[in-house]
Design brief:
The chain is about 75% helix and about 0% strand. It has three domains: about 55 residues, Arc Repressor Mutant, subunit A (Orthogonal Bundle); about 45 residues; about 60 residues, no CATH class. The chain has nine helices and no strands. Helix 4 packs across helix 6, helix 7 crosses helix 8 and helix 7 packs across helix 9. With about 160 residues, it is mainly α.
Length: about 160
């Protein structure tokens, strides 16, 4: 009976891994939610790690490479930590694969998109407020909420948008 449960745990784990790459933490959580016992889950995870089907380092590197052209460094770090990647390991990976120039460029691209949307809102509803204060405050707030640092946001707004107002 125990061997049959182990096979079911492994089958379910392989089905989950066939859909997308996950971390050890994520897989363990999903298997627990499906009602498998902890001993079978741990044995399954050990085998999958041994077979190199499950690798947190590969997951982190793949995630960073996929998201570094879109997300802030802080948001990427938060997402990796939620996926169960160690905080120190995450910092090392981000420092190695995420440049300040990339962070600035990501912030700039998002700021351009938000700037246009906020300008349209200002024209329609808020002309009684100065354009500069309204748009700068709205764009800056949204960039900060996306995880960009205050320094990066200020640099982008000052360097790229001060002449647009």
């Amino acid at each position: 009976m125990k061997d049959n449960r182990q096979k079911n745990t492994m089958t379910t784990a392989l089905q989950l891994l066939s859909k997308r790459q996950v971390t050890v933490f994520q897989l363990k959580k999903r298997l627990e939610q499906k009602g498998f016992d902890l001993e079978n889950i741990n044995q399954t995870i050990m085998k999958l790690v041994e077979w190199k089907y499950l690798n947190d380092t590969d997951y982190a590197l793949s995630y960073i490479k996929a998201k570094r052209v879109k997300y802030s460094k802080r948001r990427t770090m938060f997402e990796l930590q939620n996926a169960g990647i160690d905080r120190e390991q995450t910092r090392v990976f981000l420092d190695k694969h995420y440049t300040d120039e990339q962070e600035y460029e990501n912030c700039l691209q998002l700021a351009r998109k938000i700037w246009g949307n906020e300008y349209i809102k200002w024209e329609k509803k808020y002309q009684n407020i100065t354009k500069k204060s309204f748009i700068t405050k709205r764009v800056g707030g949204k960039l900060l909420m996306k995880g960009f640092s205050l320094t990066t946001v200020r640099n982008v707004l000052t360097n790229e948008f001060s002449r647009d107002i």
